[in-house]
Design brief:
Low-confidence stretches: none
Strand content: 5-15%
Number of strands: 9
CATH topology of the largest domain: Rossmann fold
Order of helices and strands: HEHEHEHEHEHEHEHEHHEHH
CATH architecture of the largest domain: 3-Layer(aba) Sandwich
Shape: globular
CATH superfamily of the largest domain: Aspartate/ornithine carbamoyltransferase
Strand order of the largest sheet: 7-6-5-8-9
Structural class: alpha/beta
Number of helices: 12
CATH class of the largest domain: Alpha Beta
């Protein structure tokens, strides 16, 4: 498999042309089929990727580790608390050294105002592709897997009503990177995207402006509302997920008055009945069960969360295969 995007960084899908994203999706589907039929896919034989994590991970770490193994390569998992970064070594020095040791660098750093800057510092100095495993602003791997999943269950994307809905959760103050990525990506495919949240959970103004521009340029729609029910009404896809109030409140506190005032923002069977009969429920996981969503919804027939999670493997493999080969 020829690495068509050799050396290209994967930091945000905004920096990838739509035709390039389409190619990643095409390769993802091809690799998924080969995985199901036990066809060998050693396109990255003897290649090494370094996976740097500042935070915990289940799907991202394992999809990358399993993915490169299935491509014939090897992943080095790096807990950054055990690296010299924890003593102040710079992203520049880290990137130069790791570039000389292997073929790709991937990093998760979600610290507000710091994560994306750190990943871009590495990308500036790396001689191999740098992949964003989630930062404070973007989660391109999740966005790509979400788009793949939507295309699988709803092939006609034009005018598809996709609602990105804030939901109540208390597990931790979560990044805005998932809804931000979805808000920018989905309008590029002609979808009717609704972003719904209580007051206090706004995304940055530049995100809203860019999402509306993406919609206008691609025949989609992008609207913002504080009305939860209107987001569920007649929706084809609902993505109820918590995110933190980082854009307006940079405190690390998980629970505050604004959060507690919006406990009713939950994905319930009652809310799902407002959507179309064939509506699909999505979530990047892990879901805060009982708070964000009722078990009967996430475990019910409308849920495609496990298909969505599985696609993290195939999209991860596509990105690595298309960027890391032929150093």
């Amino acid at each position: 498999m020829k690495p068509l995007f050799k050396g290209k960084h994967f930091i945000t899908l905004e920096e990838w042309e739509k035709s390039e994203i389409d190619k990643l999706l095409e390769v993802s589907l091809e690799l998924k089929e080969k995985f199901k039929t036990n066809v060998l896919t050693d396109f990255l034989k003897n290649k090494t990727s370094f996976l740097m994590f500042f935070e915990q991970s289940t799907r991202t770490r394992n999809s990358m580790e399993a993915g490169i193994a299935q491509l014939g390569g090897h992943a080095n998992f790096l807990d950054t608390s055990t690296m010299q970064i924890s003593h102040g070594e710079t992203g520049k020095d880290t990137a130069i050294i790791l570039s000389s040791y292997g073929h790709g660098i991937a990093c998760r750093n979600c610290f507000w105002t710091l994560g994306n800057k750190f990943i871009r510092e590495m990308a500036q100095h790396a001689t191999v592709p740098v992949m964003n495993l989630q930062c404070d602003l973007y989660h391109p791997f999740q966005g790509l897997a979400d788009l793949m999943t939507i295309q699988e269950v709803k092939p006609k994307l034009n005018n598809l009503k996709v609602s990105i809905i804030w939901a109540y959760a208390t597990s931790h103050k979560k990044p805005i990177s998932v809804p931000l990525t979805q808000s920018l990506l989905f309008p590029r495919y002609g979808m009717d995207v609704v972003l719904a949240h209580p007051k206090g959970y706004e995304l940055p103004e530049w995100v809203i402006a860019k999402a509306k521009q993406n919609a206008q340029e691609n025949g989609g729609r992008f609207t913002v509302t504080n009305d939860m029910e209107s987001a569920y009404k007649d929706a084809d896809i609902v993505i109820p997920k918590n995110w933190g109030s980082w854009a307006s409140n940079t405190s690390d506190d998980v629970i505050d008055e604004v959060l507690e005032a919006n406990k009713h923002w939950k994905c319930s069977e009652k809310m799902m009945k407002l959507a179309k009969k064939d509506v699909k429920y999505m979530h990047a996981l892990p879901a805060d069960r009982g708070n964000e969503v009722e078990d009967s919804v996430i475990d019910g027939p409308q849920s495609i969360v496990y298909q969505e999670a599985e696609n993290r493997l195939h999209t991860a493999k596509a990105v690595m295969a298309m960027t890391m080969g032929d150093k």
